[in-house]
Amino acid sequence: MRALIDLAGAGAAEAGVPRLLDELAEHCVRLLPVDSCAVLLADHGGGLGLAAARGRARVLGLFEVSSGRGPAVDAHRTADPARCDDLGAAGGRWAEFTPAALALGVRGVVALPLLRRGRRLGALGLYRSAAGPLPEESLELARAMTDLTAIGVLRTLATGRRARIAVQWGEALEHRIVVQQAVGILSERLRLPVGGAQTLLAELADVDGVDQPELARRLVRGPTAPGLPG
Predict the structure, then answer these.
(1) Do 64 and 133 belong together in one domain?
(2) What pLDDT is attached to residue 171?
(3) Does the residue 226 lie in any domain?
(4) pLDDT at 158
(5) Which of 82, 194, 210, 214 has the most crowded Cβ, counting Cβ within 10 A?
(6) CA–CA separation, 153 vs 148, rounded Å?
(7) Other Cβ atoms closer than 10 A to 82
(8) Total structural domains in the chain?
(9) CATH (domain of 212)
(10) Closest Cα to residue 143, out of 9, 16, 44, 31?
(11) CATH label of the domain that carries residue 141
(12) Whole-structure pTM over 0.70, yes or no?
């Protein structure tokens, strides 16, 4: 319960996605009967990268990312769990991944998608040195932790997006204010109508090779400001 509460609160913007995924990996190896785990995260283009890992799963996670094949890759691509209770009897499944896993002493694997409202965010790979199914109660806990992590990832991304929009809006408002001030200065000094002052400011900015807000800031600072065109 404490782990679930921890994951539910770790998605705050100040914590960030990396810390959230690292918390997920830590809780998995501490609370589940697994020896190692890897968390793969999808980028904006849909490509997967290794975001967090514990134990030998770091090697397997990098192998899956580089080869584009394996249980965690399948879980992300299909949005369904992928599992093999005994890799030694897997036959041709994951022909490249299976030998690498067996060489590292991994016999059982379960991969769960990081999924929220149809949006595929990545996958969690759980690796065991013993063959056999992951107990159902452990599987349910893993699902609950991945669900909370997916919510936290989306919440963090949304918070960051809102913050960027707020900054952009503030910059746009500041630009508009300083341009209006500069237009007022030109209109008063040159006895131009507001429309004429706006046109002049645009033409001066074009001649000087700067954007209007930057030229406007120079005008507002004073007629002797450096870089102010004659």
Answers:
(1) yes
(2) 60
(3) no
(4) 64
(5) 82
(6) 9
(7) 22
(8) 2
(9) 1.10.10
(10) 31
(11) 3.30.450.40
(12) no
Which pLDDT belongs to residue 141?
92
Task: For residues 142 and 123, state if they share a domain.
Answer: yes
* Res 226: pLDDT: 44
Residue carrying structure tokens 């630009």: 175
Given this model, what pLDDT does residue 227 score? 46
d(CA 199, CA 220): 17
Query: Do 12 and 100 sit in the same domain of this protein?
Result: yes
Same-domain status, 102 and 137: yes
Supply the DSSP symbol for 219. H
Distance, CA of 197 to CA of 180 (rounded, Å): 10
10-residue mean pLDDT profile of the chain (230 residues): values are 72 64 90 93 83 88 88 93 89 84 92 88 93 92 90 74 54 70 82 81 80 81 55
Residue 118 DSSP symbol: T
Contact by Cβ (8 Å): 220, 178: yes
Residue 230 within any structural domain of the chain: no
Do both 112 and 98 map to the same domain? yes
Comparing CA positions, the residue from 136, 134, 135, 137 lying closest to residue 126 is 134
Which residues span the domain enclosing 9?
Answer: 2-162
Q: Please, how many CA atoms are within 13 Å of residue 85, restricted to the half-sphere of its CB?
A: 6
Rounded Cα distance, 174 and 180, in Å? 10
